[in-house]
C-alpha cells in the first residue's frame, strides 16, 4: 500500500492528488516513458535506486507545482533535474525553458555538472550563467545575451546574477519561454543577500510571463518564510517532506 511505503521511507505529503511515488527508476521508463538514455546515464552514474525524495518528487513534478523539503545530500538535484529534462524533451530554439536558481555559484555549478551528466546523449543544452567582473567575461556576457535568447534549454544561476541579467538585457531578454522555475536551497536564499530573496525572487517570478510556468521550491530545512511565499504565490501546490518534519 502506498501510504505504508511512504511511511517506511519517511515521505510526508500534503496537497490533493499527490501521485504515487516510484520504487525504482525502471518505473519511470515503464509508466512515464522517460527516455532510455536517461536510464543508462543513471546506471553509469552509479545510481541504482531512487532516494526517497526522488521517489516522490519526480512523479509530483511531472504533475504539479511542488515544494520539497529534504535533507542535504538526499539527492534533490536529480529529483527536479530528471523530470524537467524529461518534460523538456528535445532541444528547441526560441528561448530557454528552464531556469534553476541556487544561492551560490558553487551550488549552481554543482547542479549544472550533475544535470549535464544525466542528460548526456540528449539534445538538450544546459548552461551555467557566467560571472562578469572582467573585460573578458563581459564579452561572455554579450554572448550570454545571445544564449539566453536562443541557444540553451536550461539555465542555472544565482538569483542575484539573474536579477542583474534581467536589468542589463531587458530589451533582448524575454522570459516568455520559461516554463520551469526552480528555486533550490530556497531557505538559504531567504536568509542572505543584500536585496533579499523575497524581492529577487519576486522580480524574477514577475518577469516569467508564461501561463504554463511551473514553480518548484526545494530546501534542506523547513522555512516558514518559504512556505508563506508558496502559499501566497502558488495554488494547487503539492508539498513533500522527507525525514523528520522537525529536523
Ligand atoms: P541535495 O541537493 O539533496 O543536497 P544532491 O542532489 O547534491 O543532494 O545529491 C547528493 C549526492 O548523492 C550527489 O553526489 C549525487 O550524485 C548522489 N545521488 C543522487 N541521487 C542518487 C541515487 N539515486 N543513488 C545514489 N546516489 C545518488
Ligand atoms: Mg542540493
UniProtKB/TrEMBL annotation:
Residues 57-240 form the Helicase ATP-binding domain. GO terms for molecular function: ATP binding; hydrolase activity; RNA binding; RNA helicase activity. Residues 27-55 form the DEAD-box RNA helicase Q domain. It comes from the Eukaryota. Keywords: ATP-binding, Helicase, Hydrolase, Nucleotide-binding, RNA-binding. A motif (Q motif) lies at residues 27-55. GO terms for biological process: maturation of SSU-rRNA. Its EC number is 3.6.4.13. It catalyses: ATP + H2O = ADP + phosphate + H(+). Belongs to the DEAD box helicase family. DDX52/ROK1 subfamily. This is Probable ATP-dependent RNA helicase DDX52. It comes from Helobdella robusta. The gene is 20213620. The chain holds residues 1 to 247 of 432 of the full protein.
